[in-house]
Structure formats: structure tokens, C-alpha cells
Amino acid sequence: MFATAPRGRLGAGCAALVLVALTTMFFESADAHGFIVSPMARNLMRRADANYCPHCGNGGGTAHVQARINAGGWGFPDMGSAENTHGLCGDPWQNSAVAGQFAPIPQQPFMLAGGVQATWAEGSQVDITVGITANHKGYFEFRVCDAGIDTATPSQAAGQACLDRHVLRRVDPATRPECTNVDVGDIPDCQPMDQARPSRWWLPPQAYGTPGGPEASTQFTMRYQLPEGLWCSGGCTLQWWWLTANSCHPEGEVEYYRAAREQAGGGLPAGWGTSDRYMSDCGGQAQTEQFWNCADIRILPSAGNSSSTPPGGAGPLEPAPATPAPE
């Protein structure tokens, strides 16, 4: 079903490969990373604002996030019930004057809703485009809160609980005609499904994306399935989470690429994955960079849905019960 990219895709032999490797090494130390292009993220909409870059929504940077995780006694990665380690939409911004501080939700710039950027239909398949300016590999996940995430969200735990109710799943490439006998280097979204973790989209090398996006990014487009019963005519929030693999192996990475290479008939394009790099598994003090963005969307109910009240979106979020940090 899946084909392997031919050798030499990156250009004229070894010289091109060396250039790509050197470029990657440079970018891995640069202060530029990624953001949602479509539907447009709040931070990309407001890229003309002073003193921030749209691709720096990493909670202030790995060191600051790790310090907050350690101070709270939380595990890594700090999704779920962890409070005050990162903003739901990526605040505080890297290199900002407050990168090391964690502000209350009403003071987090990108918790401010930015206006609906896409209108989708309940139960439909949707394309999401992400721009990457420095490729740290790893994987993406997407969540939807049907009550909306904004400055009125009572707590991070309440907002995260709403998002976690709707973790989107990839559309299986095995069901898509355009992914039959295709070179996954030509259509990265045809990469084999992570059957154990169907929400994850594993990031290919930069050379396999579409260049020339906003902020000089390389773009990748991925198709996801909206679940039946999820709609929010008044607006809801799409959250992008990128767990990178530039410092440690994320849980499931080695297993995914082993299975993907088998599904792809013995191989994937050169450079996919980091399982050939000597790194520790993520966890404990082995932590890697993370990114979060929010985009404002609307999901209309299907014609057969006669309910007048969106499921879970009938009113403001209630504060989530406090969850103690692990012993």
C-alpha cells in the first residue's frame, strides 16, 4: 500500500544531504518552531503585534516548563490535570519579557478568542495545516473544546478536561484512495496510521513538506475525523499540541516507526523518525520541547441532529475539582 521514497529525493547526492543536516542542526538551536496555519491560530492572526513571534508558543521554553513541572511534582508530558506548567494556548511566549512567569488565565494573551476561522460540519473529515519553521520531529495531536477556551475559562484543569473529551483521530490512510500505492514522501499524510495511538500525526523531515508558507514556514496538511455528536454553533476551540523529539524519545515513537517501516514495505523515506538517534526515553528529568496553539472554529450540527443544545457546550465551563500532584 505504501511505497518508499526513492533515494536522492533531497537533491544531488551527499552534498545536498550534508547541507540539509547542517541546516537542521542550525534550526534546532533557533528560536522558531511552528503554528497552526489553517484554521488560522490566534497567534498567527496577531503576528503583527509587537514583541512576539507566531511560532514560539512553547510555554516560555523547555527550561521554564520543566521548572514548573518539577515545582508542582507533575509528570512529563504535562497534559491532563497538571496546573500552571503551560498555557492551554501556549502562553507564556518564548523570548517574551514574561517567559519565565505564569500569568493567570485572564492575563494570558492567546487565551483571548480571535474570531471563527473555519466552519466545519459535525462528523466530517477536515484538513488541518501546520507550519513548521524548525523541525524537531515528534508528533501532533488535536483536541476540541465545544464550550470554547478563552479568558473566562475557570482553570487550566477545567479547560484541559473539556479539550480531552474530544481528542481527534486521524483518517486512516488505508481508507483513502489517494494513499494507495503512493510514495509517502509525496503525500506525508499517507504515512501509516499509528494503530495504538490513532490521534497522533508523526512529523516527517522538513524536506517533505510544502515550502513557502507564512513566516517562511514549511507546511504539512493532515486529515482528521470529527466525531458524531460534536458541534458548537456558538464557536469552539481547536487546540494543537506538538510534543517534539529533539531531546528524548516520546513514548511510542520507536514502536511506531518500527511498525510503519513494516507497513511501508520495508522502509520509510530517509530521516523519518529519531529512533536511530541515541537519546533517552522521555520522562522524569528527560524532557523535550512542547508547543500549544488555539484556533477558533465552528462545527455545525448535521441535518439529522434536532437537539437545540450542543453536547457539553450549553454554558460556561465549571471549575474542575482540584487534582493533587503525585506523591
TrEMBL record:
Protein name per the record: Chitin-binding type-4 domain-containing protein
A single GO molecular function term of this UniProt record: metal ion binding
Compositional bias (Pro residues): 318-327
Protein's UniProt keywords contain Hydrolase: no
Cofactor: Cu(2+)
InterPro entries in UniProt: Cellulose/chitin-bd_N (IPR004302), Starch-active_LPMO (IPR052282)
Domain Chitin-binding type-4 as annotated: residue spans: 33-297
Family per record: Belongs to the polysaccharide monooxygenase AA13 family.
Keyword Metal-binding in annotation: yes
Signal sequence bounds: 1-32
Keywords linked to the UniProt accession: Copper, Disulfide bond, Glycoprotein, Metal-binding, Signal
Any one Pfam family match given in the protein's UniProt record, by short name: LPMO_10
UniProt-annotated stretches for the region Disordered: 302-327
Species assigned in the record: Hemiselmis tepida
Source species taxonomy: Eukaryota, Cryptophyceae, Cryptomonadales, Hemiselmidaceae, Hemiselmis
Highest taxon, organism lineage: Eukaryota
